[in-house]
Amino acid sequence: MLLIAKIITALVAILHLYFLWLEMFAWTTKARKVFKNFPQDLFEPTKSMAANQGLYNGFLAAGLIWSLLIQDSVWQIYIALFFLSCVAVAGIYGAMSVSKKIFTIQAMPALIGIVLLLATLYSS
Fold first, then answer.
1. For residues 19-54, b (16+ Cβ closer than 10 Å) or e, as one string?
2. Residues 6+ apart with CB under 8 A from 1
3. What is the pLDDT of residue 124?
4. Exposed site from 41, 57, 83, 108, fewest CB < 10 Å?
5. Which residues contact 114 (CB under 8 A, 6 or more apart)?
6. Which of 110, 124, 115, 102 lies closest to 10 in space, CA to CA?
7. Which pLDDT score, from 0 to 100, does residue 56 have?
8. Whole-number pLDDT of residue 63
9. Closest by alpha carbon to 84, among 32, 1, 7?
10. Residue 110 vs residues 17, 18, 31, 47, 120: alpha-carbon distances, Å
């Protein structure tokens, strides 16, 4: 079960690296196609705000990657739980305030990872 949890954690990290790239480096190009409901005339004026959001996504990815590199399995789980919880809270907030789709894309994988990590932690 821990292996599956690590795979989910890695996938969430990769997803957040994609968000980092999209928001920091492709906001006025690729992001226009991804965020179709966002007013097209606002991409350029919100470029620095999106880059800031991307930076936060990078911090989440860094924490998740760090959790995968920790040798102590208990600490590895605790650190992964913390960062997956941050992702889940952000995803739930995004679903409530922006789009329900954010729950499926961001919060759901993090919540699955959390459940698997907790099951691993309490089954041993």
1. bbbbbbebbeeebeeebeeeeeeebeebeeebeebb
2. 116, 119, 120, 123
3. 67
4. 41
5. 81, 84, 85, 88
6. 110
7. 97
8. 98
9. 7
10. 15, 15, 23, 27, 15
Q: What are the distances in angstroms from CA 45 to CA 41, 48, 51, 95? A: 8, 8, 12, 24
Token pair for 122: 């309490």
pLDDT of 82 reads 98
Number of domains in the chain: 1
**Rounded to whole angstroms, how far apart are CA atoms 56 and 54?**
5
99: left (phi over 0), alpha (psi -120 to 50) or beta: beta
Residue in this structure with the two tokens 């759901």, named with its chain if needed: 108
Q: Is the pTM of the predicted complex or chain greater than 0.90?
A: yes
The boundaries of the domain holding residue 28 are: 2-123
- The span from the CA of 23 to the CA of 100, in Å, is 19
